[in-house]
Every structure is written in C-alpha cells, then in structure tokens.
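Researcher: Here's a chain I'd like modeled. Treat it as a single chain, no partners, no ligands.
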Amino acid sequence: MNELILIGSLILIFGTVLLGYFFFGKSGLYCLSAIATVFANIEVLILVKAFGMEQTLGNVLFAATFLITDILSECEGKKAANKAVLIGVFSQVFFLILSQSWLLYKPSDGDFVMGSIKEIFSNTPRMILASLSVYVVSQFFDVWLYHKWWKLTEKKTGDRRKFLWLRNNGSTLVSQLLNTLLFTLIAFVGTYDFMTLLSIFASSYIIYIVTTLLDTPILYLARKMHEKRLEKEKAAAADKAENVDNCGEKNI
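Model: Modeled as a single isolated chain. Structure tokens:
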C-alpha cells in the first residue's frame, strides 16, 4: 500500500502543479509553493518503509517546490522564481509561529485533541527551522544554477528553447543533493542512529532523482501552455488594435 500511495501522491501533486499553472498562472504556483512548504513540514515527521527503504514523507511535496521554481524560471523569469522561494519562507515562518501558539493554550476538560497536537507539533520547530534554512539555501541555489545552465546552453546553441531537460535536471539534481544532505544532518542527527540517517539520506535522494526525472515532461507541458497563452494574448491584442483602427476609419 505504501508504494501505491506514494505513486498516487506523485501523480496528484505534479498534476495539481500543472493544473494550478493552467488555471491561475504564476499566482497558482505561488499558492501551491506556500501550501507545499507547510504541509511537507508536517509530513516529514512520518517515517515509512516503501520500495525496500526507510524514508520520511514530504519528499514529493518538497520536490514539487523545485518543479514550481523551474516552471517559473522557464516561463515567468528569475524574479518570479525567487519570489516563490520568498513566499515559501514567509509561509514556513508564519506556520511555525502559529503552530507553537497552539501549545500555549490550556485545554478545557472536554478536550481530547491537545495531547496529540502537542505530541506532533512539539517536534515541529526543529523540523521547520531545519527545513527553512535548507530551503533558503537549496532553492535560491537551484534558481541560480537553472539560469546558469540556461545561459550556457543558449550561448552554445544560440537557441533559448533548447536543452530544457538539461537545465531542469542539471540544476535540480545538484540542489536536491545539497538539500537532502543538509536537511538530514540538521533535522535528524541525535534522533536516529547513523544507519537510519544513512537510509533516510539515500532513500530521500533516490526519490528526488526519480521525481526530478519525472517532472521534466510536466515542465515541457507547462512551457507549452505558457506559449499558447502568450499566443492568445497576442492575438487578442491584435484584434483589439484592429477594431480600434476600424472604428477610427468609420468615424472619419
């Protein structure tokens, strides 16, 4: 069941990213970036075994944030991608403060949830602080490296559109390696033994390799949607200009 749920989660999350961009443009990706960073910090507390490896949940959601910044880099520009990273940071800080405020309340006699809330969210600060620091480093590095690859391939080929797969995978796989190493060390040292840490690191990075390779078609589809949207906007602008000219001629 774990394997099937993980595959289903991957389809759901990547599909939602594509639909969010299709219906809402970059605003949809900004919203999903905030949601993914918050939910991933809750999911990462859960340790499961799937595909023969021990792994924390949240890896697919974290992978989605890299897909989001790559789509924004490709279609909307570097500034938009960096804005998504800042939105993710803001969301994590807000969630950290809010979730910790819940623990300050004195529950009523009829409450039956506070014990579970405390058990879950008492560990959240370390997770979010680890995630926040690693997120900032790896995401800004990913955006920077994406555009470095882009400049290199454009210089070599003279074509901005070519080698999308290279700048996508070349930036994400390197930044995900950095992300996985730093997060495993900051979040779990002292919590698990060395072999479990090694297993978490290896399984997390293997998942990131798979998700990075699988998100490449999503990125191509997102670029195609963006180009079609630009064509429609250009055609609509041309029609509007033509109508204005026609009205001017009639008035004359």
